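[job 4471] stage=fold_predict status=RUNNING
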Amino acid sequence: MTARSGLESLMALEERLLALAASVTWDGGEELLRSLRPMLEESAAFHAGEVDLARPVGHDRWTLAGDDASIAADDVLLALEGEPLRFDDLPEASAYPRTQSRMRDAGLRSLLVLPMGGYGGAGGAVVLGHRDGWAFVAAPLYDLAPLAAMTGLCLERALALTALRKEVEALRLDSRKSGG
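[job 4471] inference complete, writing structure tokens
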């Protein structure tokens, strides 16, 4: 990578991070996910994808590929320690049998699990799956890791705005009912 292409890559990453931040609104994270998907596809093509946000009990999940089946099970999500996990072929996921089973059921051979908890963000992960083995071996983690971390931060804010909007609407409704 030349110094110029490295700078261009950095600028592209900076622009993508700003675009994610700009997509935060009170829609439960839908606009954020619409913005995120093409950014991820540009760096690492995938057949299945999801965002798993850690909650006090379990994870909330949003799909990135329109498939309702979850890929990552708690066995892999709870094992994340801040570093991405990459499984280049199905047997490599054997330490996580529930996730491996889900991969098999979905016809996936490769999996990339990008923690969102970096840089003080939310717990959970952005998970990408591919039908071919070794699909993520050249995935640019220097771009994908900050995107995942920003996704966690932005998703938390989008959910907080959504809850706030519902609360304000409920207060307005109560005010109208009481004649105020």
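[job 4471] summary: The mean pLDDT is 90.
[job 4471] exit 0
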